[in-house]
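To whoever is on call:

I kicked off a structure prediction for a single chain this morning and the downstream step that reads the tokens threw a length-mismatch warning. I double-checked the sequence; it's 342 residues and nothing unusual in it as far as I can see. Pasting both halves so you can look.
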Amino acid sequence: MVTVRRAALVVSALSVAAGSVVGCSAPAHQPGSSHTGVAGSASTTPPPLPGLIAFTKAGGGYGDDAVFVSRLDGSQARQLTKAGQTCCIRVSPDGRAILGAAVTSDGRVTTQILPLDGSPGHALPLPAGTLNLGPGAWTPDGRRIVVQGWDDAHEAASGMYVVDAADGRHRVRLTHEPLNTNDNPGDVSPDGTTLVFLREQAQGGEATNVGTLMSMRLQPGARVRQLGTSSEVGYGSIRFSPAGSKILFQDGRTSPRGALWTIRPDGSGLTKVYDDPQLFASHPTWSPDGSQILFALNPVADYFTHPTNAFYVANADGSEPRKTLEDADFKREAEWFLPGQP
């Protein structure tokens, strides 16, 4: 039996008290013309961009992590959580809340829902026993959440589940993890039918933060299939485009380069959309209308080391990248959204 350290949830770094629920330097290199689909150098003075971003800062006084909400350029920023109180955030489809990790009174990890207006949140109750159900991905209607389940005392229970967002009830198991793997929820398609996820490799009882991009129908017993041929997809963000026609993801954490890719839901059309010769792209996401992408550019591939970095925005094909948020902190897990959408 393999006891896997779930690095995707950074459980050891969550400094919440058990049972609690939470209510500038530039990179050394500026991205240039060497990445796919780009001619000319990047602009550092982007026009105003609509919407807001929720993101985390990590390292230093922020622990791992603290959640912030701001405009795309970092203005009107406010800190939503204290340092170390949650991680692994996703904004709800209506733009009113985020999900993140929380620790229960018996030391297990569950999923909590935090309203973006700062009002008190709530943690989803866990079943009796030793199962953890950490945060993953919303369904498009916001009523259900795909969660990452693991149980070091009963490894056979590990896999992804889908639960009610309101109270964690009606738990349905989706996958049984093969030996030496972790199934990390990525995203649910806009029509609610398909789940994409990272089947992460584990070595010597440790997570590797790299794995294979997988897809399945969002229903128990559905066939799981691999998308593409690479086993070096990185833990970070896996996102359907708003139209559902493409899936955006990143290279592995240990890759010598940090590229961003898209692929169609049927596994065809693998395309490198961004590849900087010196910096490493991570945690990509789409603009609300799908015309642009937002991502972090990091000076090193290992984004758990918390170097100073910046957020960039590019067209959906990777062209015309421009810096949008830069400060002295390390930032990741950005979610670009329109607030309070019905």
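Update from on-call: the warning came from a stale cache, not from the record. Cleared it. Sanity check on the structure: The chain has one domain: 7-23+26-337.
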